[in-house]
């Protein structure tokens, strides 16, 4: 039974190394999209993935990539599960993932908003968020658009070094 | 379906590449999700709920997509397209769920491309023509506030798939509403022209509000949000009288058929195509 344990650990490490199709500097584990890797009694490796956004067009790609890597690593029976609950949050991006984002010019997200049960409040007063420029580190930055090339990012600019940069939104 | 490679899994069963029409990566959006329906759930009702919410999202997404190349600024174009993409994602999940529980086994394409206007169950506000940017803002404000309030409740629905779709949607709808609310305040409290256009947009949307509240009992919450926004924007609250009929029973305006004709044209011209 030792080999089973070793196997699941190995399978997990293989799945963890699969890069995200949209943010290739991150692995699916860094992004928090890979939720679990298990080995069933009949020897099937079951990897669980969760989508970041409902409309994320990269989900099929991720499933295919994880399955292919596991098969290449010698696992004959692979199944990919999609987990919708609990929904993905940017809080699941690992410290290593955050470091890699910043190193690649993308400001990592702050803590995701927490809310109590019941109606979601609408806040119209400006909420001050500080996002440090991933290039020069200045906190003197501003949002130019809450929407960018992918669902998960916003556009910001640094007022100190004058460079635009992307920011991975907290959700 | 094979998980090995997107291309291979799509080409599976029909090796002829020419049948590979357009787009990539589309497959069952609930692929690999536990799809059992818990005992005691009325599946007819559940399927109808999923279908109606999917239709609101699909038709809404189509109207938002029309803003591509037409928005006042590139940033707004990207924003509206992103919001549309979220809604499209919600629609795909909901269609997939509807097909699992209504016993027909239909996939998302069967619902989106091969139903006629009278079979669509979206509320009429979703299908009204694109209008100007003020109208886009007001419609998005109303639709996202309404959908958010309903999804927030659906997050505790006994069907685990619908509740998960809703819980995920809550996060997305929260920033859709935020975007619309901020623009509503900016335009309502902006220039004379922007204020005038916002008032006109409010008047256009008003007759369709009653239908929303008949469909889902979230009136108090939506009215509270509209009150908050109109107050900050210096706009009057929309006054509405219920309009007869409802998109929820397949009664639509004359605007839905042309929208669907465009949306469905390629799929209907090539019904055998796979993508």
From TrEMBL, chain A:
Residues 16-74 form the MIP18 family-like domain. Residues 124-169 form the PaaD zinc beta ribbon domain. Gene3D superfamilies: Fe-S cluster assembly (FSCA). It comes from the Bacteria. InterPro entries: Fe-S_Maturation_MIP18, FSCA_dom_sf, MIP18-like, PaaD-like, Zn_ribbon_PaaD. NCBIfam families: PA_CoA_Oxy4 (TIGR02159). This is Phenylacetate-CoA oxygenase subunit PaaJ. It comes from Streptomyces fructofermentans.
From TrEMBL, chain B:
InterPro entries: Aromatic_CoA_ox/epox, Ferritin-like, Ferritin-like_SF, PaaA_PaaC, PaaC. One of its GO terms (biological process) is phenylacetate catabolic process. This is Phenylacetate-CoA oxygenase subunit PaaI. One of its GO terms (cellular component) is cytosol.
């Amino acid at each position: 039974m030792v080999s089973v344990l070793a196997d699941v650990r190995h399978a997990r490490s293989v799945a963890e190394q699969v890069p995200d199709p949209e943010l290739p500097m991150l692995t699916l584990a860094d992004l928090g999209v890979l939720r679990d890797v298990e080995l069933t009694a009949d020897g099937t490796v079951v990897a669980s993935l969760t989508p970041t956004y409902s409309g994320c067009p990269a989900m099929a790609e991720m499933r295919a990539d994880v399955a292919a890597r596991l098969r290449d690593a010698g696992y004959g029976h692979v199944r990919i599960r999609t987990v919708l609950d609990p929904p993905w949050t940017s809080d699941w991006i690992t410290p290593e993932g955050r470091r890699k984002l910043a190193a690649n010019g993308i400001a990592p997200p702050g803590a995701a908003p927490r809310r109590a049960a019941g109606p979601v409040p609408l806040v119209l007063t400006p909420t001050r968020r500080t996002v440090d420029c991933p290039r020069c580190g200045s906190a003197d930055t501003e949002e130019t658009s809450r929407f960018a090339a992918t669902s998960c990012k916003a556009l910001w600019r640094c007022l100190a070094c004058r460079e635009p940069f992307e920011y991975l939104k907290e959700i | 379906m094979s998980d090995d490679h997107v291309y291979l899994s799509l080409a599976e069963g029909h090796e002829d590449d020419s049948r590979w029409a357009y787009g990539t990566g589309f497959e069952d959006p609930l692929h690999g999700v536990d799809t059992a329906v818990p005992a005691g759930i009325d599946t007819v009702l559940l399927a109808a709920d999923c279908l109606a919410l999917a239709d609101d999202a699909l038709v809404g997404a189509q109207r938002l997509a029309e803003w591509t190349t037409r928005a006042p600024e590139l940033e707004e174009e990207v924003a509206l397209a992103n919001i549309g993409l979220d809604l499209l994602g919600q629609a795909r999940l909901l269609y997939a769920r509807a097909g699992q529980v209504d016993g027909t086994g239909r996939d998302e394409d069967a619902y989106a491309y091969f139903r006629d206007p009278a079979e669509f169950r979206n509320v009429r506000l979703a299908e009204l023509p694109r209008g100007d940017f003020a109208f886009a803002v007001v419609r998005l404000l109303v639709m996202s506030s309404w959908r958010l309030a309903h999804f927030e409740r659906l997050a505790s629905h006994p069907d685990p798939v619908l509740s998960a779709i809703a819980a995920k949607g809550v996060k997305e709808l929260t920033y859709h509403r935020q975007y619309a609310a901020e623009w509503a305040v900016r335009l309502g409290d902006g220039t004379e022209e922007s204020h005038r256009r916002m008032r006109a947009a409010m008047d256009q949307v008003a007759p369709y509000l009653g239908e929303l509240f008949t469909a889902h009992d979230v009136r108090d919450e939506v009215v509270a949000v509209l009150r908050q926004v109109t107050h900050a924007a210096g706009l009057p609250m929309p006054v509405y009288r219920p309009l007869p009929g409802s998109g929820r029973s397949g009664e639509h305006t004359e605007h839905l058929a042309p929208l669907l004709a465009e949306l469905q044209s390629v799929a209907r011209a090539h019904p055998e195509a796979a993508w």
